[in-house]
């Protein structure tokens, strides 16, 4: 089962929380569609800002959007001008008031979304896929990951027939629910077609109870810069070596 299901959804309620936190009631469908529109717009608008995760929280008249990124300066802009502009753009999509929080990802090498996007951008830039993947794998393992697995699929190097190649290092136990495995799928749009990049990163194993609700150190305040705190969701402990 661990090989067939998205590793993040497989761990929801165990060690992972939801990226949308609200009670919809009778307006559940409308809120869900609005969330999809907000995420789609932000993914296109902040494509070059290394966005890792977008967390949406709702109250009656306020939508709080927390953007996790490794490059907060690109989103904030000079004196916070870009954040205010983005806020006005999002308020046009929804009728409610919008509050934007920016959270800095301190170790982007351990974030599957950022690693996959980096590999995809290099493939689009005509860099050899093997070189791009191997550099990403080495960088992730140096940052303290227990294991990483990367799968690249499509017309690799412009070949006539599409194929898949997988690169592994360390351990990525997909069946172990307490294993903190981050997963991402990013598409690279090349001249010969679409190349899919899948990344699994094992960041250790979680022991004890973990806070599932997204808790960020700068939550409740509109961020104008980086944050020195770490999200509670990123805390993990490595298993003891019994050898």
Automatic annotation (TrEMBL):
It comes from the Bacteria. Residues 234-243 have a biased composition (Basic residues). CDD domains: KH-II_30S_S3. SUPFAM superfamilies: Prokaryotic type KH domain (KH-domain type II), Ribosomal protein S3 C-terminal domain. Residues 218-243 are annotated as: Disordered. Residues 38-106 form the KH type-2 domain. The keyword Signal does not apply. Keywords: Ribonucleoprotein, Ribosomal protein, RNA-binding, rRNA-binding. GO terms for cellular component: ribosome. Belongs to the universal ribosomal protein uS3 family. Part of the 30S ribosomal subunit. Forms a tight complex with proteins S10 and S14. Binds the lower part of the 30S subunit head. Binds mRNA in the 70S ribosome, positioning it for translation. This is Small ribosomal subunit protein uS3. The gene is rpsC.
